[in-house]
Please model this.
Amino acid sequence: QVQLVESGGGLVQAGGSLRLSCVASGNGPSINRMGWYRQTPGKQRELVGVITNGVTTNYVDSVKGRFTISRDNAKNTVYLQMNSLRPEDTAVYYCTARSGLRVYWGQGTQVTVSS
Model:
């Protein structure tokens, strides 16, 4: 079992920045993939970015050049640095981790970008 705890969400003006953090804890196979998804009411959860094996990153096109995902293996933590935030980035952001064949989710953290 893996537990994920997110932090760092909040309210920010358009053009501002936020950094989300997600700490993983628990037992099981090593986590080889961590990332972030987001969801707004009435829409499907969408991938924001993932980092695989601590090196390879992938992002949804709408955040490329603005968001950066990174991982600190020593702290079992994944970060999402969000710059140049836009109102359309407003969503609940969920941390995710893959350990072996299982995928785990955090409880979500709200990010609100005002115009």
In short: The CA atoms of residues 50 and 59 lie 7 Å apart. DSSP finds no helices and eleven strands in the chain.
